[in-house]
Amino acid sequence: MDLRNQHPECCTTSFGFSFNKINPDLSTPSLNPNRFHRTSEISVKELIVRRGQAFKLTLRLAPPFRPAFDQLTMTVVTGRPFIPSFISELQRSSSPETGVLVLAITPPAACPVGEYKMSAKLGEEERDLATLSVLFNPWCPGRFLDWVFLPDEAERQEYVMNEHGIIYKGVDKYIDPTHWDFGQFEEDMVKICMKILDYNVKHKQDPADDVSARCNPIYVSRVVTCMINSENGGGILKGQWGMDFRGGVPPTHWSGSYAILKKWSNSVFSSVKYGQCWVYAAVMCSAKDIYRKIRCIWARICNCDQSIREKIKNTCYFTHAGMFCCGPAPVSAIRNGDTHLKYDIPFVFAEVNADCITWLVKRDGSMVNIETDSIKIGQNISTKSVGTNNRMNITDSYKQKEGFYSFPSPRVNREMTAEVLFQNPVKEILRDCSLTLTGSGLFNGELITR
Questions:
Q1: Which of 6, 110, 151, 165 gives 20 to 30 Å between its CA and that of 238?
Q2: Whose CA is closest to 57, among 13, 85, 18, 20?
Q3: Cα separation of 259 and 182, whole Å?
Q4: CB of 288 within 8 A of CB of 186?
Q5: SS3 of the chain
Q6: Is residue 275 within 8 Å of 240, Cβ to Cβ?
Q7: Which residues contact 285 (CB under 8 A, 6 or more apart)?
Q8: 164 - beta bridge partners?
Q9: What sign for the dihedral angle of Cα 226, 232, 234, 239?
Q10: Buried b (16+ CB within 10 A) or exposed e, 40-68
Q11: Strands 310-312 and 302-303, how do they pair?
Q12: How is the chain split into domains, by residue range?
């Protein structure tokens, strides 16, 4: 930023500060910028801000600052060579003649999340100043809208600020609520989550492209789903659905995410043993807590950023381009069977709508279908209610009621083909059956029989 001949209230820059003394004062709670960015629970020692929201810096320069003659350039860098443009405003409380510059710095609401390095140059003197972490901002509405904006404060408190949640396991008639500590405010959690981003395969292949794509919460979500699974190489959790848990911890013994993530980080990114579906889901939520928390539900589906109405699959079983990951997928698309949309909707749709088939395997290896249950799968999909520990049934958000199907939007004056398949539930041949369809112009006035 060049401060010469600039209006003191509106200066655009790359970012930074300078040389004799630098505020913010992170040691004083009332002055700590983390407090206003709702990150003081994460750290009071490191600068952690949310994109789209300003924070103030006070620069105390050794010589007086002369706006007409002195050029102050400030730079912020994340990755290389990507350099985002931050907004800097020189505040009225500045006193250039005494060397005091008060700046309001705003990371753009669409900048990549991650760790940034700040530097400043005044004349011929250049200095590295500090580092800061920039997170997604569910409190950022309006002109500088963050994609993950949540309009409801109660939901923000539940999904971003609440460390404790409930995961629902078991089957639809015997639901087992398990309390879980997501631990997003534990020591070093931000650094661990940054390691998750930096250790993913795409970052190793093309660091610059990966870093620049971190502005998109959908991209970050897919990276995290990949990194949860050990099958992708260097992933956090190794799954075990048998009974042999030697060399590790049985999945039922975990009660929080921090111990798992800390162990993965301390072991130089060796997969932690062992996890099962709900453990994958819980750790996924904790990693996302740092960027923008998601609410976790059991039944192998996780409810993601409400602002973009997307859902992330947390079991990480599905392969895409050779990687185990799944989602985010729009809930409305899952419910309506819009399998042509991204991401991995056919897989998730099948998980909540599949038929449970009982086969009789004969001695010669042939199989006979003896029972088909089209209702059993996808019942009682549950999540913790906002602000309470009550269970909320959200099955209707993910699937139509059994026996009820509708088109997601009206189709007017357009030809449409509907295929209806019937399965005879009895072994006898049915005769004199009738099918009644009600609607305007369904058959163009013609009666069709076959």
A1: 165
A2: 18
A3: 10
A4: no
A5: CCCCCCCCCCEEECCCCCCCEEECCCCCCCCCHHHHCCCCCCCCCCEEEECCCCEEEEEECCCCCCCCCCCEEEEEECCCCCCCCEEEEECCCCEHHHCEEEEEEECCCCCCCEEEEEEEEECCEEEEEEEEEEECCCCCCHHHCCCCCCCCHHHHHHHHHCCEEEEEEEECCEEEEEEEECCCCCCCHHHHHHHHHHCCHHHHHCHHHHHHHCCCHHHHHHHHHHHHEHHHCCCCEEECCCCCCCCCCCHHHCCECHHHHHHHHHCCCCCEEEECHHHHHHHHHHHHHHHHCCEEECCCCEECCHHHCEEECCCCCCEECCEECCCCEEHHHHHHCCCCCCCCHHHHHHHHHCCEEEEEECCCCCEEEEEEECCCCCCCCEEECCCCCCEEECHHHHCCCCCCCCCCCCCCCCCCCCCCCCCCCCCCCCCCCCCCCCCCCCCCCCCCCC
A6: yes
A7: 165, 182, 257, 293, 294, 295, 296, 302, 314
A8: 181
A9: positive
A10: bebbeebbbbbbbbbbbbbbbbeeebebe
A11: antiparallel
A12: 11-137, 147-398
For residue 294, give the nearest of 124, 160, 204, 140 by alpha carbon: 160
The CATH class of the 11-137 domain is mainly beta
Homologous superfamily (CATH) of 147-398 is Transglutaminase-like (3.90.260.10)
Residue 438: count of CB within 10 angstroms of its CB: 5
Q: Does residue 217 contact residue 147 with C-beta atoms inside 8 Å?
A: yes
- Contact present, 256 and 180 (Cβ < 8 Å): yes
- To the question of pTM greater than 0.85 for the whole model, the response is no
Q: Contact, 287 vs 222, CB < 8 A?
A: no
173 CB-near residues (< 8 Å, 6+ apart)? 380
- Tokens, residue 177: 């609520």
pLDDT in tens, 28-85: 566 678 888 988 888 888 889 999 998 888 777 777 788 777 788 778 888 765 566 7
Q: What angle do CA 167, 169, 170 make, to 5 degrees?
A: 165
How many percent of the chain have pLDDT more than 70? Answer: 76
* Predicted confidence (pLDDT) per residue in 83-107, tens digit: 667 877 778 888 788 778 888 888 9
Looking at mean pLDDT, say which of 187-201, 282-296, 408-422 comes out highest.
Answer: 187-201
Question: Do 413 and 393 meet the contact criterion of CB atoms below 8 Å apart?
Answer: no
Whether 11-137 and 147-398 share one fold: the answer is no
Task: Read off the amino acid at residue 384.
Answer: K
Q: What is the pLDDT of residues 213-252, one digit of tens each?
A: 999 999 999 999 889 988 767 789 999 988 999 999 999 9
d(CA 20, CA 88): 20
